[in-house]
Amino acid sequence: MKKVAVLINSGIGNALLQVPLIKHLINEGNQVDGIFTSLAPYQNLFDSLNVFSSTKTIGLLELASSSISISKKYDAAYLDFFASTNKLILYGLNIAKKVNIRKQPNKLPKSDRIIYHPIVEGLHEISQNMRFIDSHFYDNQIDESLVTLGSVSTKDKTITIQLSSANNAVTYKNWPINKWIELIQVIQEEYPALSIVLLGDKNEIDAAKEVEKRRFKNLQNLVGKTDLTQVSGILSRSKIFVGGDSGLMHLAAFFNTPTFTIWGASDYRLYGYAHLISEKHKMVSNKIDCWPCNRYYSPNKSRYTKPTDCIDNACIREITTQEVSDKLIPFIKSAC
Prior knowledge:
The chain is an alpha/beta fold. The protein has helices spanning 12-16, 19-27, 43-48, 63-69, 86-95, 125-130, 177-190, 205-212, 228-237, 247-254, 268-271, 314-317, 321-335, and strands at 3-8, 31-36, 54-57, 74-79, 96-101, 114-116, 158-161, 195-198, 219-221, 240-243, 259-262, 281-284. It has 2 domains: 3-141, Rossmann fold, CATH 3.40.50.2000; 158-335, 3-Layer(aba) Sandwich (Rossmann fold), CATH 3.40.50.2000. The strands form 2 sheets. Strands 3-2-1-4-5-6 form a 6-stranded parallel sheet. Strands 9-8-7-10-11-12 form a 6-stranded parallel sheet, sandwiched between helices. Strand 4 (74-79), helix 5 (86-95) and strand 5 form a beta-alpha-beta unit.
């Protein structure tokens, strides 16, 4: 049995997108440990789901002392794009015989122990990560068996909605709140027997309060009131998740819950699920000339160097409530 380490230095979405790789490594008979270098509080979720053989969280300031205690313990270490930093590559070299990376190291000495796996334009992030072990892996090989952590047999009569993305910190991922209110009104008129649960963290409380002012029936606001384990349980029992490019979207998909997502500047081909498992996941987007300006490789810089500089966020703000409801309403019917 080989011992391998997967280093996770990103948000919950990118962490989940490494699960197919982890599952494959385990199925090949490896002992797979998770080493979390991100401050995001989701190690407990991975522990509860028994994704790894063992896990540990190491702060960036602790890397040197930690690497001494586990020097060359692993046969291989895997670092996705966001973990392929100089500090973590050096850490990987200390703890493993070989280090697999997704981003070219900057100003590091060459080593035959560093194996670079180049990004392939147009492939989903799951495929990019799976190419650590299969250089001929493509999107058409992704199915539900790869994109599943668990599911429940009986679903609640509930639609979960997240009103914003990225902790409400970036406008280019967020659909206007007035349109969300219009959409919720349409959902309740079409499906009065279904309850709606609003989810999100404390940064999304103000947006949820705007919805609460409308006093919708059968709507429960849990924004800022749940931890990640509680959210996971709610998502897994939900009939459908509706939101944007967010960590909760990935959680819902990995808990086998159908998703409907509204996309802005991000490349849905890289992070979404609708083009991978089209019956279970749907989406709407507005591919204007400057799209996609938000992705970690080859972003479209024809209009702005950074998506945060955009003054109008037309790619998502111009998507109408009618466009969304025309696709969402029949999808709810098929999912319920």
